Amino acid sequence: MSMIDSLLAGLSLVSNVYAFLALFGGIIIGVIGGAIPGMSATMAVALTLPFTFALQPITGILLLLGVYKGGIFGGSIPAILIKTPGTPASSATILDGYPLAEKGEAGRALGMALWASCTADLISNLALILFAGWLASFALSFGPPEFFALILFSLTIIAGVSGDSLLRGALSALMGLLLATIGLDLVYGTNRFTFGSPNMMGGLNFIAVLIGLFAIPEIIAMVWNPTAHIGKTRKLGKNWVTFEDYKNSFKSIVRGSFIGVFLGSIPGIGAAPSAFLSYSEARRKSPNKKNFGKGEIEGVAAAEAGNNGVAGATLIPLLALGVPGDVITAIILGAFMIHGLQPGPMMFVLNVDIIYGLFIGLIVSSIFLFLVGSVAIRGFKYVADVPKRILIPGVLVLCIFGVFAVNNNIFDVGVMFAMGWLGYFMMRNSIPAAPFLIAFILGPLLEDNFRQSMLMSGTDFTILFRGPITWFFWAATIITIIAIVRSTIAGRVKTTPQ
Amino acid sequence: MKMKLLGALGTMALALTASTAYAEYPERPINMVIPYGAGGATDISARTIAEPLGTAVGKPLVMSNVTGAGGATGSVVVQNAKPDGYTMLFARVGSHSVSPAMKDTLPYTLDDFRFVTVYEINPVACAVSPSSGINSMDELIAKVNEGGVSYSSSGVGSLLHLAGAMVLNEYGVEDPLTAATHIPQKGGGEAATAVLNGTATFICTNTSALASFVANGQLKPILVTTAEPVAGFDAPTSADEGKPALEKLVGWTGIAGPADLPDDVAAKWGEWMGQAAGDQNFVDQMTKRGSVINVMTPEDANTFIQEQYESFRALVDELGMRIKG
């Protein structure tokens, strides 16, 4: 069967109204689900799964993919408007999105988030269609030593999101690393810092930490000083994102998309680190470096490109190898299996019509996302016009509800408030929260992969340098560290009074 | 004012509990705790049975994932719940037979739960990567004796962890814990990937987790632990290999309540499960995923789990796998 035949077979599968309706409906569900803090894209996909059982395989899977893609974009809406990431992947969007909203440019930030998301989505889907086989075999060459080197390199992001003081950033990262050690030890199965509490055995819930760290400090600050915001205009603003903005950020968007494609095709990393990596790269390359973190539109573009770039690429290991890269693709894998389909190399032979049907659906999904997103922004814009004294209590209720709903556990709500006070303390002392979060995500991955490498080699450290991939990331890490040290020293010389 | 309100609330609460005692169970929605994450084997199994089960129960089932610590966090929620039948748990082989057998650090024991059913059995298979050059259990054992063999699992205290050690032990490997290295991963998907990319040599896990890799020729099955062959797995069974003890090594999903669950509630569940598992749609979906549907009565379920637990516990003690602190 030639490619044209496969394409036509795929087209005949999706060329019915139901497939597109499912995709469109899925994106709507996803955007709404993603926009509710604590609901997260993962939960939206999990809740949609049972509805796909009765559908045709291709229709059901397109529905789930729609929810997934919509959810990843939807998370940026509350991240920008109320500083509460709707889904962990959008935590990097807060860094510049919320300051923009504070300046009365929420509309511009949301618009840019949508444009960047759709562009990255398209690039990611094209990468899936064109390079799936090649990227999948590359992903399989990632064992624990390669992961270790990659994550070590990713930790250098911390320098990029530390703001003015690298020392404060490092302090924040250390706290993140410390709290990430709570829970069960991976290799021995023993309890670490759980103080005998079963609630602590699973570690601190990620979403509780995330919301506690970003949203709650704003609320505490408001309680502390209820009239601080009066006199500041905080509106969606007349400013809409312009083509000029898009053009200026285009390089960052494309770079972020490729970072997303790369990290997405390797199972086990996920969208949040990709968004942060894309953000810190954009900052490093930008002439407006100083403005990052204070409301730079390019920062929003880079973060959103980084997380949506992952969305198509995570399907690469799923379709080509049958390996789910994260929780969401694990759920989608479940949907394949329930319909008797087994993703993997043979699927490209046995069910090539479904593969091509999916590809066609995915390309269309980028366009649908743009349509649904534009409407959603218009719908949610009224949030930006709500006076802060009314908005903030609402946000608090939403945060408590959201964090509780993740695990139906009141303990998580306690974690959220504890983290909120920590976040408030950090805010008052200008310690940035982003390094904390990155360390909290990457720290356990670094440790686990290190220990798995040591188990593999019988505690022989040379395994950490076992091949070209590890060499590449070790070199990249060293170069980045040298660059950070040099720019820090240069910065100090500049600011020292003559 | 405040006192009045409290008084009113108290009366209401009293009225509610009073009516609970007399009314027919269930008279309100039942909370079903899934102690594993969305999309995992337990979650999909639970959500698949929730549909026909909800019809049989006649009240909504509220499904909630309470994840963490290899199923322990969610199990503790049900352990501490009121034994009124309104908070029930989807228990799994890992959380309710391997972990209790292996971990002294667990905040619960089997005695803290009363099982109302086990409805699904998952056969276990061992597989290697085709590029490893291993074609049978004997070749694997020969490699183990040479050294450098490892196996992956979804974590300490998981079925996969115990399965690897148990299979090696049955094949006469002396001191399997040092002869082969256990490389724990963060989940079942990661564990299979570890064998795909050469991080570990072999894996023993539920056939449903391996089915697509085997169908695609990415992994090669070398043993099935049931006595009967499993469709799609071209490998000798435990009966072929003359290792009947391995038949204990199966995965399962069941439903449990707190220890003091009343008899009539347990009996109700037995009835509902009989109805739910008769649903053809449910059976089709589960068998497609490689499960064997076998609804046990509350008594059978308790015996089945207790027996598996005892044999696992004996093995853990024999091999010195217990986790103490």
UniProtKB/TrEMBL annotation, chain A:
<feature type="domain" description="DUF112">
    <location>
        <begin position="21"/>
        <end position="437"/>
    </location>
</feature>
<feature type="transmembrane region" description="Helical">
    <location>
        <begin position="169"/>
        <end position="188"/>
    </location>
</feature>
<feature type="transmembrane region" description="Helical">
    <location>
        <begin position="6"/>
        <end position="32"/>
    </location>
</feature>
<feature type="transmembrane region" description="Helical">
    <location>
        <begin position="200"/>
        <end position="224"/>
    </location>
</feature>
<dbReference type="Pfam" id="PF01970">
    <property type="entry name" value="TctA"/>
</dbReference>
<feature type="transmembrane region" description="Helical">
    <location>
        <begin position="431"/>
        <end position="450"/>
    </location>
</feature>
<feature type="transmembrane region" description="Helical">
    <location>
        <begin position="471"/>
        <end position="489"/>
    </location>
</feature>
<keyword id="KW-1133">Transmembrane helix</keyword>
<feature type="transmembrane region" description="Helical">
    <location>
        <begin position="147"/>
        <end position="163"/>
    </location>
</feature>
<feature type="transmembrane region" description="Helical">
    <location>
        <begin position="354"/>
        <end position="378"/>
    </location>
</feature>
<dbReference type="InterPro" id="IPR002823">
    <property type="entry name" value="DUF112_TM"/>
</dbReference>
<feature type="transmembrane region" description="Helical">
    <location>
        <begin position="318"/>
        <end position="342"/>
    </location>
</feature>
<keyword id="KW-0812">Transmembrane</keyword>
<feature type="transmembrane region" description="Helical">
    <location>
        <begin position="258"/>
        <end position="279"/>
    </location>
</feature>
<feature type="transmembrane region" description="Helical">
    <location>
        <begin position="390"/>
        <end position="411"/>
    </location>
</feature>
<keyword id="KW-0472">Membrane</keyword>
<feature type="transmembrane region" description="Helical">
    <location>
        <begin position="44"/>
        <end position="68"/>
    </location>
</feature>
<protein>
    <submittedName>
        <fullName>C4-dicarboxylate ABC transporter permease</fullName>
    </submittedName>
</protein>
From TrEMBL, chain B:
<keyword id="KW-0732">Signal</keyword>
<protein>
    <recommendedName>
        <fullName>ABC transporter substrate-binding protein</fullName>
    </recommendedName>
</protein>
<dbReference type="InterPro" id="IPR042100">
    <property type="entry name" value="Bug_dom1"/>
</dbReference>
<dbReference type="InterPro" id="IPR005064">
    <property type="entry name" value="BUG"/>
</dbReference>
<comment type="similarity">
    <text>Belongs to the UPF0065 (bug) family.</text>
</comment>
<feature type="signal peptide">
    <location>
        <begin position="1"/>
        <end position="23"/>
    </location>
</feature>
<dbReference type="Pfam" id="PF03401">
    <property type="entry name" value="TctC"/>
</dbReference>
